[in-house]
Amino acid sequence: MNNVFVAFLRQSVCPQLKTRRYEKDILYGMALEEEGKRKFILLLKSPTEGGIDQYHKTLESEGYNPVSVPVLKFNFINIDEYSDRLSNYTSYCSIVFTSQQAVKATQEVIQSWKEGKQSELVKSLTCYVVGKATAKTARQLGFSPNGEESGNADNLCDCILLERDESEERTILFPCSNIRKDTIIERLCSKGIPVEELNVYKTVHRDDITYEVKQLVEKYGKPFAVVFFSPSGVQALKKNNLLEILKSSKIVALGPSTHSELEKESMEVFGTAEKPDPRSLLEVIRR
């Protein structure tokens, strides 16, 4: 009995034979076909922990198929020293977060504090951040962050310089990565503003991403676009010999420093998002 005749029986002669399993197979096939039609966007970042990933939500609403792959790992360091400095929070006027990981290191310290002490900390320090994701994480700790629309560290410095009281003498606390850029330190110190930095987390390249990326390419085909979220992400893919594999896709950078890093590796950058947020990224991809 051939397949065409079986299908005829199911739909016409014996409709009762149209089982749930048959319907499920059809729906599954349609889902795979629909997924295959959507343009595959490779996001080189960690998926959002809990809640909705706004990058995925925004891109999916426009018919794309975004997949996040983390290229970096983060390990907290100098936590005892950071705890000492945060305990002495009245010595500082502000705290600057240029990444979600720096906020998470702060959470690692203060989660064991009494609620009243936590509240005093977030009220005492003016909080500055780069990006909406970092701002959201900071709010979860109780901060009221400024500068989330700045887009990059250079613009954030402009915001800090504009708002800082000339009579203020206290230091700005800057918890950061072991591979942080010099922008915050150089810009603010050049204006006579004291900045106290401390490496609170270490950025490490994942050595096991090659298989994961190749599997995605086999499943979805060549990515329509590959989005790099940081200079260290560029170096992580270089280390794993993945830049060449993804070179023929649209290469998109989130921010000027990531753009520069890609160009150093002779990667042709299709576009750079003006701000590190989903809408800015979408505008670049849709060009």
How do the helices and strands line up, and which of them pair or pack?
Layout: H1 3-13, H2 20-37, E1 39-44, H3 54-61, E2 64-68, E3 72-76, H4 79-87, E4 92-97, H5 100-110, H6 115-124, E5 126-129, H7 132-140, H8 153-163, E6 171-177, H9 183-189, E7 195-205, H10 209-220, E8 225-228, H11 231-239, H12 243-246, E9 250-254, H13 256-264, E10 271-273, H14 278-285
Parallel strand pairs: 1-2, 1-8, 4-5, 4-6, 6-7, 8-9, 9-10
Antiparallel strand pairs: 3-7
Helix pairs in contact: 3-14, 4-5, 5-7, 8-9, 11-13
Spatial order of strands in the largest sheet: 2-1-8-9-10
**Shape category:** elongated
Radius of gyration: 24 Å
Q: How much of the residues is beta strand, in percent?
A: 15-25%
Order of helices and strands: HHEHEEHEHHEHHEHEHEHHEHEH
Tell me the number of helical segments per DSSP (H or I, 4 or more residues long). Answer: 14
Would you kindly provide a written description of the structure presented here, covering whatever features stand out?
With 287 residues, this protein is of the alpha/beta class. The protein contains 14 helices and ten strands. It has helices at 3-13, 20-37, 54-61, 79-87, 100-110, 115-124, 132-140, 153-163, 183-189, 209-220, 231-239, 243-246, 256-264, 278-285, and strands at residues 39-44, 64-68, 72-76, 92-97, 126-129, 171-177, 195-205, 225-228, 250-254, 271-273. Strands 2-1-8-9-10 form a five-stranded parallel β-sheet, with helices on both faces. A five-stranded mixed β-sheet has the order 3-7-6-4-5. Strand 9, helix 13 and strand 10 (271-273) form a beta-alpha-beta unit. Helix 11 runs parallel beside helix 13 (256-264). The longest helix has 18 residues, at 20-37. The termini are far apart. Mean pLDDT is 86; it is low at 1-34.
